[in-house]
Amino acid sequence: MDKRNFAFGKMNFILLAIGVAIVVIGFILMSGSGSTETEFNPEIFSIRRIKVAPIVCLFGFLFIVYAILHKPTDSNNAIEKVTLEDE
Known about the structure:
Helix content is 64%, strand content 0%. The protein is mainly alpha-helical.
């Protein structure tokens, strides 16, 4: 298959996977036991759940946007341009 038919390059997919992994880590940081009707759990208001985890998720989503917008470099195209300019 010709690589020109793909919208994303290999690096885009790697960056996208890293971004998804960061988002998953953020959601794991948010998880934990909650309060029930009879017992209050003050751990639901911990710094990890309220501040750190949402920031990690936001960073992951921004990284995914960067991975989508990242323009793949085509080394074959760059070599062709250099050889054409030399002629």
